[in-house]
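Hey, resending since the last one bounced:
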Amino acid sequence: MAPPQPKAAAKAPATPAGGVKKAKVGKPRNYDLGSGVVRFSKTKMFHKKAKYKFIGKKNPKASKPKKPTVVVKQIGGEKNGGTRTVLLRRRKSFYPTQDKIRTRPHHKTFSKHVRRTRPNLTPGTVCILLAGRHAGKRVVLVGVLPSGLLLVTGPFAFNSCPLRRIPQRYVIGTTTKLDLGDFKLPAHLDDAYFKKNKKSTKRSVKRKQGEDIFAAKKEKYVPSEQRKTDQKTVDDAVVKAIGKRADKKLMRGYLKAAFGLRSSQFAHRLRF
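The structure tokens again:
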């Protein structure tokens, strides 16, 4: 197939009276190759024009004086006659083989991150726990802490689940919700409230007291009186909200029963 021929050049205009005008010879630099394809793209044409863009400009750019980097000094003496070129700024005498690793305070920046929770996780939502010693239990969400962790409770009298913090990725939020009314979480129930005091006795102290330094003694956790009071305060509000429902008997049984999948049941097909 023969290559497409370029378009014929436009006809020269009629010769004006009193003078002879020469016809343009040749073809334009850019022309159509067929099917809307041109020889040069717009980018190519721009670069070709840019070569001649600033020729003959009326206001040329003023040249800035260059700062000297060296200075020529006269050297005297019988054997040191002549001049010497000296750098105004000395070059570095040491160049490291690799860049230094800059340490960034990542712990501080993590504490300033904005915490976002799923829109269906609001106070009063009945959730299903997916991890931990209480996995499979249905609990009630009572608040979201500043760290982004969810604060949930059983209530304790229903399924023995106390006030606990849990990440939202280990929770399934159901469509069942309790109306907690004007209940507000106590201000002192924050992340510092739930941190355990992990203080272990040093071996040197055990040796002085005559105890076995290799004996691993695990202290059994005993909730404080403050913890028991706070648990009762929160659970009372949840139980009161359950008592106001028309299906309160069914709701109590729902919270007491553990979640599980039977044969031919798939989690991604269920509606919670």
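Strands lie at 32-34, 37-38, 70-75, 82-87, 125-129, 138-144, 150-153, 164-166, 171-177.

Sorry for the duplicate.
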